[in-house]
Amino acid sequence: MKTMILTNVNWMNETNISVLAGDAVQAEADAVVVIATKKQWEQGTHVVPGAKLVQQAVQCGLFDGIKTQSFPTGSDKAPVLIAVGHSNDVLTIADIRIMMVQAAKEALKARAKRVAIVVPQQSDSMKFTGSLAEAGHAIIEGFLLGAYQRVTYKRDAKPPHGFEQLTVYGADDALEQVEQGATRGKAYALGTTLARDLTNLPGNVLYPSKMAEVAQDLAHTFGFEVHILDEHQAEAKGMGGLIGVGKGSVNPPRMIVLKYQGKEEWNDVYGLVGKGITFDTGGISIKPSANMEQMICDMGGAGTMLGAMVTIGHLRPKANVLCVIASAENMPAGNALKPGDVITSYSGRTIEVINTDAEGRLVLADAMTYAKELGATKLIDAATLTGAVTVALGDFTTGVVTNDEALMQQLTTASKRTGEYVWQLPSHQEYWDLLKSEVADVRNSCGRAGGTITAGLFVGTFADGLPWVHLDIAATAFLNKARGVDPKGGTGAMVRTIAEMITSEA
Predict the structure, then answer these.
(1) Pick from 71, 298, 323, 417: CA 20 to 30 A from residue 503's CA?
(2) Nearest-angstrom CA–CA distance, 467 and 460
(3) How far is residue 132's CA from residue 170's CA, in Å, rounded to a whole number?
């Protein structure tokens, strides 16, 4: 991939991951990561260079046996031991993922290029839930997610520190399972990283035609089919939502399509629909200036769906997937959309524009109809759609609106495996009724009350009865402070859950 946008993805792609039989004693690396319980570090049961130093540090109160910490080993073979501790004797897969995030941050501090990771062994003093494949997945996924570094534009900025080699050591009888898990873990991390990189890009670097170039790069890399509609083609088709939102900008809109066919017949097709507003001023209904710079993240839904396509491209599941991105820049101008305007969507429905800052749902309306036309049989859309979702759920949980309980259950099951929180909001008929307009088929804003629900249902109107799930990632796609597996800035929210839905079913 040639574009500068994919800096972190490039170094991850170049990282060689191998799974070998052995233990920490055999490891030759710049840093060795060993997971143990607090009790094991206290007792010094690990035979590994530096273990005695860790035990002494625990005894002296310089290491609590829980938080991740680096120790010099005095060995040329493996000069740094990254001791990863835990207070419980039973580790969950989520615990392992977070521990590896912490280990990666220590490896970055040590500027390690080659890292050896020892798979925790089931024993009387430590057990973990889940399979060895799941453990291998969590180890690589967690380490690579924890190693993420946001690209900056400072004059003296250095490129992100990359890892040349990650070697996972495990028992002979576990290697195949761990290797399978590690392959999936890397693919999930690569997809999430692409979404993070895209979400962090300034609006003068990422705009609709540049997002189309990224999609073309992905198509070339993974063999996807791709086609792009420019503003003239979209207007000729009658995509009034996309054209209406984008017409106030000097950067014209794009409708972007990627197609992956993993089955012989083009049926049972997931339609992944992403909101790609590369910058959102609010248009004529202009936003307050405070924190408007964060509106570079308003294409987070597009980032999520393109990230999911990266994971799918690596894993090649037996599934059919269509990705449709509606990308525009929402700017105020003499020809911009105005409150009170009535536009005609690609579906033929007319829309009364109450608020031009409710623009994401307008471009998604056309994208949903287009995905259905191209063969999608079930739809998942992701969008940084409403500020109201933050009020409802904070920045911990993605809000969900759906018309199909089976698809919702599939999403919930996947989210529990990935550790991403989702919460289903109600969709009673009374909420649907709020969308009615006196002068058009629907209106694009129903006021503050229930705003996340009505915004989601507006998008769902254009599913036209197909099974559909809407993900409002406005709170989870971009964080002001790092937390768990997520860095400050773009998080790549829901990439892993969507990928898990599709690949686990396949």
Answers:
(1) 298
(2) 9
(3) 10
Q: Which residue has the higher pLDDT, 316 or 60?
A: 316
Q: Amino acid identity of 411?
A: L
CATH of domain 201-505: 3.40.630.10
- For residue 178, give every residue at least 6 positions away whose Cβ sits within 8 Å of its Cβ, in sequence order, or none: 19, 119, 132, 133, 135, 136, 168, 170
Out of 247, 287, 316, 338, the active site residue is 287
Give, in order, the Cα–Cα distances in Å from 158 to each of 7, 105, 153, 199, 341: 12, 17, 9, 20, 48
Q: How confident is the model at residue 261 (pLDDT cuts 50, 70, 90)?
A: very high
Residue 372 annotated to the active site: no
With cut-offs at 50, 70 and 90, classify the pLDDT of residue 5: low
- Residues carrying CATH 3.40.220.10, the chain: 4-195
pLDDT digits (tens, 9 = 90+) for 321-349: 999 999 999 999 999 999 999 999 999 99
* Portion of the chain with pLDDT greater than 70, in percent: 97
Known active-site residue 361: yes
Other C-beta atoms within 10 Å of 18: how many? 11
Q: Which residues are 422's β-sheet partners?
A: 398
Other residues' Cβ atoms within 10 Å of the Cβ of residue 74: 11
| Cα-trace Rg, the chain | 24
DSSP state of 483: B
Contact of 193 with 229, CB cutoff 8 Å: no
> How far is residue 404 CA from its own chain's centroid?
23
In the chain, residues under CATH classification 3.40.630.10 are: 201-505
Residue 124 has pLDDT above 60, yes or no: no
Longest dimension (CA), the chain: 77
Q: Catalytic pick from 275, 361, 417, 443? A: 361
- Is pLDDT at 2 greater than 60 in this prediction? no
CATH architecture for the domain at 4-195: 3-Layer(aba) Sandwich (3.40)
* Tokens of residue 492, six digits: 């790549």
**Mean pLDDT, the chain, integer:** 93
Contacts 24+ apart (CB under 8 A), 428-433: 431/457, 432/457
Residue partners of 197: CB distance under 8 A and separation at least 6: 5, 6, 7, 8, 9, 151, 490
pLDDT value at 88 more than 80: no
pLDDT score for 333: 97
